[in-house]
Amino acid sequence: MKTIFENYNTQRDPLIISEYGRSIQEYVNHLNSIFDREKRMTMAYAIVEMMGTINPEIKKQQNYKEVLWGHLHQISNYSLDVESPYELPSEVEVQKKPEHIGYPTTGIKFRFYGRNLQNMVDSLIDVEDKNTKQELLNLVASFMFNSSRAWNDERLSNEAIAEHISRLSQGKLSLSSDDFEVTEDNYVPKKNTNSKKHSKNKNRNKRKTNYRRY
């Protein structure tokens, strides 16, 4: 008599790609046991179609069929003996770690602007066309003004913005307060203080209930 634990998940082989479930893995394991090559190929195509149905998000990729065949090969522990319409990846290629992309080594001079502003200023230095440079300068100055409003609740003067741009450009952009025009956003999101207040009240209520007698 069989017990309920004879076919329990913890006693089965681990799932190689969990998104497709155990049924697909069992179908793939059965695939290479089919002696007739034509039947094996027919079943391989059917399994790939099932995989696409089970994991429909993968169809958003342009080469999703190639990815599905690669997953089929991976689930078979790279022992798939079929004529794939695509070049199948090797285990070494799948297990290979991506190259390290590195991290920025320079600090952020003004954290409330973010690192993107530094990139914007660096690009602004290299612009030669005067009209284009003026438009970009106005955009950068407006971004700085509105960012300071949002994060510091401070309205920067044009003099302060000119000084910040000079520091960010390491003196390559020497400006006065009249060299740019700031456009103020009509709406700037403010910091949410309600969540902190709610959290304090919640903790206060918890402390009160800790001393409650029954």
Short structural summary:
The chain is mainly alpha-helical and 214 residues long. The chain is built from 8 helices and no strands.
Description of the structure:
With 214 residues, the protein is mostly helical. The protein folds into two domains: 12-95; 105-190, no CATH class. Helices cover 51% and strands 0% of the residues. It is built from eight helices and no strands. It has helices spanning 21-31, 37-54, 64-75, 91-95, 115-126, 130-152, 158-168, 194-210. Helix 1 runs antiparallel to helix 2 (37-54), helix 2 (37-54) packs across helix 3 and helix 5 (115-126) packs antiparallel against helix 6 (130-152). It is elongated, with a radius of gyration of 30 Å. Residues 206-214 have low confidence and may be disordered.
